[in-house]
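BACKBONE STRUCTURE TOKENS:
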Amino acid sequence: MPEVGIVDVTWEELQPGMVIAEQHYLMTPEDIRNEAEAYEDYNPIYGDAEFAAKSDMGSMVTPFYLTLGEFVFPFRKAGKRISINTIYSKSVRESFKPILVGDLITKKFSVYEKTEKRDKKFITWLIEYTNQRGELCQKHIRTSYWVGTAQPLLKFKPSGEVVEG
């Protein structure tokens, strides 16, 4: 079975400014619709091209909570994994420019900061979304508690079913 994330990433090697992965997405109406439907948000600006064309935006736009698989997939695509458990702690998401149909979005996933409080470790990630003109559209700062307990290695059966290995 193919393994996902074959290189363990350790606390010690993660440093502020370290880029984990960069991914590129061409935003299609289907991508926008799927993202909104995942949150059961049926605002027509996200799913109805005719409605959106008549709006001030002139096009379908992505919801502010756009993820594009923002946390796990960048590690997988880079062939890495965090071999210990982390627990979501907090996040701040900011939107600066709308992401429209046809925009080529670059998502950069990097280490923002590492902190230790009361013998507990926290890692803060920075996920930035820029368009084809290099304009920052969205920023997500997400902090996780670095628990330190072992996480199982994931493997996939040919059917796509996940099994622990």
